[in-house]
């Protein structure tokens, strides 16, 4: 780049390195969850042949809970619940049986028992409900000795965090996702009606992606910073995915075999300041081109970044403080499945609901987050304001219920 071009670019990487005090902390924004939007070819969409997703269902039974390996839906609501005092193991079994019955009916496009708006259940739109257990639930059940070590300890503190109780913690998680926001809203209300005698709502977070039929074929989604968001993710149905996401058949505790761990981080974005940055500075902060998601060292979105490449000044083409470099796995176990959603609660309340699944947060998530906390330049524009960790039980078969491996 010529000196004139460098001056015209405004605040460049060198300006960032010299003039910005890098806060600690961070998030996996540029590397967040894969959104492969399965849509019709452009010419068919132009002709009005929109794919029919309203009647499409996702199976709720199986070895694993739905909503993890399931292709990402356009809308999701995450609800954290706190159990009422006096709720014990027997009460939890009743609660889980009620919720499971709701899940089976609603995901099939059938109204729940005593559904106040049964007509809204007739559009399942790929509805899934995923349930997670916090440490408080295991305490209530008298089963703290069955908690995995990472759940007992919780996530460590990260310097960049500015966590608020209103977005953090919880005894139990409900992840409700579908292509239709009305379907999500209805399912959440039905589930909370059955949960109300047992628990109170701690927080609710709703997020979105572009629906599949508004994007070109196999397009990776973008977050509100404009970044292509989800380039690197294990592929469902592969041995790689199984090793990254599911607790193995010989894993401990036994009740969680075939289950997973869920990390949810609410990341507030300073979109006003970010929007005023020049393109060069944005791309160097991320380590990828904004136009197509390719690494700054060239190629396409799926091309492996060359972290050894240098420019004419001898500086790394992908800066040492770029998000992509710090989020890149530096050990064999440092990989996670990302399923993030954008949120927008007003001009000053927008960002990312970072959702990730993995077998062991201590070895897979924490090392990545620590690096991001210390050096990621995106910390200048992003602030984690919520954090929660849940154990996600395995799936259930017809006649069973979610969490039966722990409570049954």
**What fraction strand?**
15-25%
| Rg for CA atoms | 22 Å
Output the number of helix runs: 14
Structural class from helices and strands?
alpha+beta
Biggest beta sheet summary: 5 strands, antiparallel
- Shape, per Cα inertia axes: globular
Number of strands: 9
Helix content: 25-40%
Number of domains: 1
Rounded mean pLDDT is 88
Uncertain residue ranges: 1-50
Along the chain, the helix and strand elements come as HHHEHEHHEHEHEHHHEEEHHEH
Distance between the termini: 65 Å
Topology:
Elements: H1 3-8, H2 13-19, H3 42-46, E1 75-83, H4 89-107, E2 128-133, H5 135-140, H6 149-153, E3 172-178, H7 181-195, E4 199-208, H8 239-245, E5 260-269, H9 271-275, H10 279-286, H11 323-327, E6 337-338, E7 341-344, E8 350-358, H12 361-364, H13 366-375, E9 382-392, H14 404-407
Antiparallel strand pairs: 1-3, 1-4, 2-3, 5-8, 5-9, 6-8, 7-8
Model description:
The protein has 408 residues and is an alpha+beta fold. The protein has one domain. The protein is built from 14 helices and nine strands. A hairpin with a 5-residue loop joins β7 (341-344) and β8. The termini are far apart.
């Amino acid at each position: 780049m010529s000196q004139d071009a460098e001056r015209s670019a405004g605040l460049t990487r060198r300006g960032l390195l010299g003039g910005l005090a890098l806060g600690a902390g961070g998030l996996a924004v540029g590397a967040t969850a894969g959104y492969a939007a399965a849509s019709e070819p452009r010419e068919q969409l132009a002709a009005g042949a929109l794919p029919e997703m309203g009647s499409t269902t996702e199976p709720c039974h199986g070895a694993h809970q739905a909503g993890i390996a399931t292709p990402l839906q356009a809308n999701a609501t995450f609800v954290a619940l706190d159990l009422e005092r006096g709720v014990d193991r027997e009460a939890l079994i009743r609660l889980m049986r009620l919720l499971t019955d709701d899940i089976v009916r609603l995901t099939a496009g059938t109204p729940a028992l005593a559904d106040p708006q049964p007509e809204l259940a007739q559009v399942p739109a790929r509805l899934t409900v995923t349930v997670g257990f916090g440490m408080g639930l295991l305490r209530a059940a008298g089963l703290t000795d069955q908690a995995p070590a990472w759940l007992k300890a919780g996530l460590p503190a990260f310097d960049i965090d500015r966590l608020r109780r209103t977005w953090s913690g919880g005894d139990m998680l409900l992840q409700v996702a579908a292509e239709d926001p009305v379907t999500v809203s209805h399912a959440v209300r039905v589930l909370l009606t059955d949960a109300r005698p047992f628990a109170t709502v701690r927080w609710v977070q709703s997020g979105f992606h572009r629906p599949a039929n508004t994007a070109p074929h196999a397009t990776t989604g973008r977050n509100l910073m404009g970044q292509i968001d989800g380039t690197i993710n294990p592929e469902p149905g592969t041995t790689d995915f199984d090793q990254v996401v599911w607790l193995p058949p010989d894993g401990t505790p036994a009740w969680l075999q075939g289950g997973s761990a869920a990390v949810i981080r609410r990341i507030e974005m300073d979109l006003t300041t970010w929007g005023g940055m020049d393109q060069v500075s944005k791309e160097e902060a991320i380590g990828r081109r904004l136009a197509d998601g390719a690494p700054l060292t060239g190629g396409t979105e799926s091309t492996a970044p060359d972290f050894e490449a240098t420019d004419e000044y001898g500086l790394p083409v992908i800066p040492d403080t770029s998000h992509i470099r710090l989020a890149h796995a530096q050990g064999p176990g440092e990989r996670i499945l990302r399923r993030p959603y954008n949120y927008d609660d007003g001009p000053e309340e927008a960002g990312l609901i970072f959702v990730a699944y993995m077998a062991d947060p201590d070895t897979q998530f924490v090392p990545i987050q620590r690096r991001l906390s210390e050096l990621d330049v995106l910390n200048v524009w992003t602030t984690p304001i919520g954090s929660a960790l849940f154990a996600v039980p395995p799936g259930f078969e017809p006649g069973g219920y979610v969490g039966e491996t722990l409570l049954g």
